Amino acid sequence: MDTINESESLAKYAKALSHPTRLAILKHLENQSCCYTGDLVEIFPLAQSTISQHLKELKNAGLIQGELNPPKIKYCINQTHWQQAQVLFQQFFS
C-alpha cells in the first residue's frame, strides 16, 4: 500500500473511531463473535436508529461487516480491516 492510500485508509478509520459510542460498539464486538442490532440497543441507552447510524459508519469504514439474516442483521468485526487499522495506527504513532 502506498503512502497516499495508507493516509486515506488511516483517515477513514480515524473518522469512524471518532465517536465514543462507535468505540464502545467495537469494544463490545471485539469480545464476542457477532451480535444483532437489537442486542446493542439493549446494551447502549440509545435509540435503534442511532445505533444503526453508528453501525453504518463503522461498516462504511470497513471495520465491521453485516450479514443479513432477515429480519435482523448480524454484525461482527471485519478482521482484515481491523488488523490493517491497528498496523496503520501503530505506524502513525511510532
UniProtKB/TrEMBL annotation:
Q: Where is the HTH arsR-type domain?
A: 1-94
> Cross-referenced Pfam families, in alphabetical order?
HTH_5
Q: Superkingdom of this entry's organism?
A: Bacteria
| Coiled coil start-end | none
Q: Does the keyword DNA-binding apply?
A: yes
Keywords assigned by UniProt, alphabetized: DNA-binding, Transcription, Transcription regulation
Protein name per its UniProtKB record: ArsR/SmtB family transcription factor
Identify the species of origin: Winogradskyella rapida
